[in-house]
Amino acid sequence: MNNKPLYVTRPFLPPLKEFEKLLKRIWDSRWLTNFGKIHQEFEEALCNYLGVSYVSLFTNGTVALMTALKALNLKGEVITTPFSSVATANSIVWNNLEPVFIDIEETTLNLDVLKVPPFINSNTSAILPVHVFGNPCQVEKFNELKSHHDLKLVYDAAHCFGVKLNNETICNFGDLAVLSFHATKVFNTFEGGAIISRDKYSKDYIDNLCNIGLATETELISCGLNGKMTEYQAAFGLLQLKYIDRIIELRRINYLKYIDFLSNIPGIKLIDKQQNVMYNYSYLPVLIDPEVFGSTREDLNNFLKNKNIICRRYFYPLISSHGQYSHFKRSDLPVAEKVSENILCLPLYHDISEAEINYVIESISECHRQKRTFKIR
What is the CB neighbour count within 10 angstroms for residue 205? Predict the structure, then answer.
């Protein structure tokens, strides 16, 4: 291997010449933002691709999630997971709501639906689960909780572009679902995000909130924010759609190459896959068992970093471990704490080479051998 770093992800960039054609349209129209022609085309194309009725585009996923919670007029407490990007909980707090952190499942790493009911009370207004790493939550059980307790259900589906459950898009579950199109995601618009809604009224209201709260040039219906996606982002997304199926397939192939080797390294555990799910292979997380592997996650992460393999500890520390979140209500979090201390996401993207995959695998194996030998001595 050369000295070029291997990062945890690398964004797909479509042919520049094709993007230049769309940029020419923007130059000619001088319509740069505010729901332009390409913005409208991108929304329609996304609805068709994802199999959803209504899409609202945003400048990024965090603003989209903040707006989704605002659109539901929530008050009080929102039950969520501590094992996610801090943006998930930040979106709750920015809406003057209180997050309640509940432990996660060992198998999927998602919010554990069975541990939620004891924390539902008269102040609870919503549940905000996350489909972590594109692995779907137990949507039917969450829907039962929503109905039984008359709660709102919003899914943070940041990792889920193209993911299907029982051949239906994961974005069609819950009252609202929020996608991220950040550069680190399978599908990106440089930065970007979207809210998937169920009806025209919700879509229009969300669009108004995204546009400073204006329904018309002179009518303000809410204290909104400016979260609109630009024509540049929309043009890039429109072009990405031409290639996304092939990109996901290449990621799947590379994921399987990893799996063949990782399963033979003692102390490396893969996250369980569900049989009825079409995945997008957005990340390659592994759990390190220090006793079996012979070193901690931190040891392995540093060992790989010294070999120019830049992994990420998604998600460490837990959101609930940050000082700003220490005073909020929570369940006991033994699973989330253990996972957070032992998880590592390895480099995975559409054009990672077989040689690069082998280099990562060999480096992990080398760390295992050295640490085990050192311990035995």
Answer: 23
The CATH number for 29's domain is 3.40.640.10
C-alpha–C-alpha distance, residues 374 and 377, integer Å:
5
Tell whether 128 is covered by a domain: yes
CA distance 238 to 365: 41
CA 217 vs. chain centroid, Å, equals 35
SS (H, E, C) 46-81: HHHHHCCCEEEEECCHHHHHHHHHHHCCCCCEEEEC
- Are residues 124 and 273 located together in one domain of the fold? no
Please count the other Cβ atoms lying within 10 Å of the Cβ belonging to residue 161. 26
3-state secondary structure of 301: helix
Phi, psi of 277 (to 5 degrees): -120, 135
State how many domains the chain has.
2
Give domain status of residue 328, yes or no: no
Model-wide pTM > 0.85: yes
pLDDT less than 70: residues of the chain: 1-2, 371-377
Whole-angstrom distance, CA of residue 154 vs CA of residue 115: 18
**Which residue range(s) make up the domain with 264?**
244-311+346-376
Are residue 77 and residue 193 in the same domain, yes or no?
yes
> Are 126 and 142 within one domain?
yes
User: Domain check: are 192 and 74 in the same one?
Assistant: yes
Q: What pLDDT, in 10s, does the model give residues 108-163?
A: 999 999 999 999 999 999 999 999 999 999 999 999 999 999 999 999 999 999 99
